[in-house]
Amino acid sequence: MHNQDPRDHEGLALNPIFTRPGERTEFPRFTLRKEESLPETAYQIVHDQAMLDGNSRLNLATFVGTWMDPEANRLYLESADKNMIDKDEYPHTAAIENRCWRILADLWHAPDPARSIGTSTIGSSEACMLGGLALKRRWQHTRRRHGLPTDKPNLVLSSAVQVCWEKFCNYWDVEARYVPISEDHRVLDGHDLADYVDENTIGVVAIMGVTYTGMYEPVLQISQALDKIHKNTGLDLSIHVDGASGAMVAPFLQPELEWDFRVPRVASINTSGHKYGLVYPGVGWVVWRSAELLPEDLIFRVSYLGGDMPTFALNFSRPGAQVLLQYYQFLRLGFDGFRAVQGASRDIALFLSREIGKLEPFELWNDGSDIPVFAWRLRSGHERHWDLHQLSDRLRMSGWQVPTYPMPADLTEITVQRIVVRSGFSKDLAMDFLEDFREQVAYLESLSAPLPDPQPTPGYHH
């Protein structure tokens, strides 16, 4: 997992400009030194190491939030010591967590938000695990009531799911049944769904914002396909919506789109507070339509303020600060503020996709009209001496991180690039990016022979 660094045998050295008389200026890399050092010394060494990371504002690969108000930064520092699991010591933070998922239940049209149940998590990956666990446990309870075996559960998903669902199926012994995407069916849309479900299916996952491309999967259309399956076979299956990104975009930009608890088969929804919830990493949320959809035997109970607080999580100790930051954003922005921020990001995504789509070498896969994310590939039918991996490398020379990766199973011959537009990526930055992008494309198009020894970089899993 770790490549040998030729500097591993060397220590860390402090620049002489920061040293004081008699102060030690070299530190071992992998052992704890015996002596203390001054706080300024420790700070400078860590600061200089972290400075070598990329500039997060220029990272067009990640979905994760990289900018918040100065007031949010102050609140973050003030609450950095709060432990979300310790609801007895931090009962008001626990109460704010409760308010946040109630806000989300209302935003996602739960029939009765007061009867919903939800929790914060460390991110969407944990939230997905909890949603999947609830599906599996409900299926197990139903099977046992009817005297049926519970040893072969399966979960139906798109082949374009995020890696956390592969982990869920691996860790909890659930067979993953991937419905392949194709040129004709670019997302899971209910096509041929009957071929993948059976009596051992615990549920179907629908994605609001596919990681590869940002496209929404049509939850209502998937539900209608399941209605037909129910009518024909008696199988009555629930949907978990992985709304890591789209669950905090669709309510504001596509309010007429039925993807949430307005669709009766949707049992649970997760989102990333640290993606389009506009909070620093890491916080996620998962909400169930009603409390009875979260099996009681998965819930642990603690008391706070003399009352009862149900908890359901994989992690134990975890930061409470990001929960407070999420509530800050709900108070700070309100519905209209979220709509303005997400709308501005989508406008920039549409602008960039339109401009990139005008360039002869490229063909858009989608345009960023769902979440502010879009992908493109090289246009076929024209011989070139370069590929998208080399374009990524050229853009990185100017600080821009633009991922290049193959599409999922059955489309792996297609390589795409993708841009994620987030809050903090302004129109001015977009113009600067376009200038660098066109310059690098022009350079690559001018090549009369291939560049030597291209080394494709691995795909992104944000």
Can you offer a commentary on this structure?
The chain starts with 11 loop residues before the first strand and ends in a 17-residue tail after the last helix. It has a 7-stranded mixed β-sheet, with helices on both faces. A 4-stranded antiparallel β-sheet has the order 12-13-15-14. The chain has 3 domains: 1-46, no CATH class; 73-330, Type I PLP-dependent aspartate aminotransferase-like (Major domain) (Aspartate Aminotransferase, domain 2); 341-445, Aspartate Aminotransferase, domain 1 (Alpha-Beta Complex). The protein is built from 10 helices and 15 strands. It has helices spanning 39-50, 70-78, 91-107, 124-145, 163-171, 219-233, 250-253, 321-358, 388-396, 427-445, and strands at residues 12-13, 26-27, 117-121, 154-158, 175-179, 201-207, 239-242, 266-272, 284-288, 300-304, 307-311, 362-364, 373-378, 404-406, 415-420. Helix 2 packs antiparallel against helix 8 (321-358), helix 3 (91-107) runs parallel beside helix 8 and helix 9 packs across helix 10. It is α/β, with parallel strands linked by helices. Strand 7 (239-242), helix 7 and strand 8 form a beta-alpha-beta unit. GO terms for molecular function: glutamate decarboxylase activity.
